[in-house]
Structure formats: C-alpha cells, structure tokens
Task: structure prediction
Amino acid sequence: MNNIMDCIREGSVLLSDGAWGTMLYEKGLKSTECPELWNISNPDKVFQIAKSYVDAGANIIETNSFGGSRMKLDMYELGDRAKEINYAAARISREAAGDDVYVFGSLGPTGKILMMGEVSEEEVYQVFCEQAVALEEGGSDALIVETMMALDEATIAITAAKENTSLPVICTFTFEKTMNNDYRSMMGVSPTDMVSALIDSGATIIGANCGNGIDRMVEIAKEMRKANPSAYLMIQANAGIPEIINGKSYFREGPVEMGAQLHHLIDQNVNIIGGCCGTTPDHIARFSQIITHANS
Result:
C-alpha cells in the first residue's frame, strides 16, 4: 500500500469513515461507560464498527481512541492503562482495514485548559506522546489530532506526535458559527488563524470535523482554501445540526441529503472527505459512490 501522502498528491479524493460515537451507542455503549475501554472489553463490537466502514468503501478508518489520553482516561480511573487501550484500538482497526485501507490513530482533546493553568505544557506533551507512540505501535498509518479548539493544545499534540513517531500528522478543529456570521472555535480560533499555526507546527493535513453539517463545512473549507490554496484539507461533517428530543440527539440528514451536497467539498479541492456525528456506514457508502465517480 502506498504512503498516504503519495495517494493524496496523486490528486484523488480519499474517503474516511463516519461517526464512531454514534455507532458505539448503537452497539450498546452506555453513557456512563468509557468508550475506549471497549477496545479491551468488547473488541468484537469495535471491530464490527471499523469493518462496517471498510465494507462501505472507506479508504481510511480511524481508531476508537478519541478519549484515549491518560488525562481523559483518568476520569474513569483508567489512566494507567492508556498505552494498553490505545495499542488495542490501533490493532483492531488495523485488522479491520487489512492491506488496502489506511488507519488514522485518533487523538482528541485532553479536556484541560492550558491558559487556565490546569495543567502544564510538559504534562500535555507527555500524554500525547504516550498515546501517539502506542497508536503507531498498534499499526496506525497516520495520526489525527481532532476536534481541537485551542491552538496551544493542538500544536503541542502535533509536536509530540512528530517528535516521537514516524507518522504523518493530521489536525482538525471544530468551529461554531457566531453572531457575526463567521466561524470560531470555543477558544476563539478562526479557520484562518488555524491554517498557518498548524502548518507551521508540522501538520501534514489540516481541516475541520464535527459541529457542522456539510453546508457550513463548505464555508469553513472556503476560508481555509483562501488562507492557503495549496494546503491538504480533510473535512468530516455531521449529519446536520443535531436536534435534542427527550434528552437524545437526532441527526436529520441522511445519506441522500448529505450526498447531494458532497460536490461542494470536492469543488473546494478537499483531499479527504468523511463523516462525523450522526453519520453511519450508509452515509459512507453513498459518499463512496459519489467520490468514485468524481475520481474517474
């Protein structure tokens, strides 16, 4: 299998997987459970999720390790099992991916705010280092630092991954539309701010995930493209904006509705397209049909 960056440079749009949390809950995960512990306690169900995205046509699948940093796992008193849990996450996705699909090791936010002094930069660096190394050892082809909101945490994560593994590093932020009709992360970072900061930190691919449906993600991608026309971009949109009904989130955009807007991302030369919250293997199967046609 070619290096992921070689494939991207060839010009074809690659397809990543869809939501993991959505699928874990469908498989029976309880809200009080640690999703990442399922890599140890329910590996068969985690494998089924990964394989379902492979079967749907994804070129890339992630690992069930979004909350796998020692700091996040400490919430479940599992911090001392961080290496074991992340290694298992990568091994499961590697097995599901086989030889023809790439595995992106997922690293999410620590949940700590550096500017508030809750934790030191060195502590954040060490937890991301631990997670990144375990994900590489488990068989990941690249690492994705995702759903980030603060530049300081994101750049530390990128640096830890670059300095301690041999893998390409992707970083995606999540943005919200403001009253001024522009986009900012929860910590006030704009897509334009993000682009140069992440590239300067060594990210190979940058982008956005979560928080928005495709319509808004197109606007975000346009801003990123304006900031850097040659950057490699990855976009993973939600299945629309969730509606909360009786305490549960419902996503209204099905495979057909999302698929009808996919060409807008392709027109922005987005290199990797996938799904986030609310998307399923059915969404990815529809995306696969459209992207295959666009690549032909």
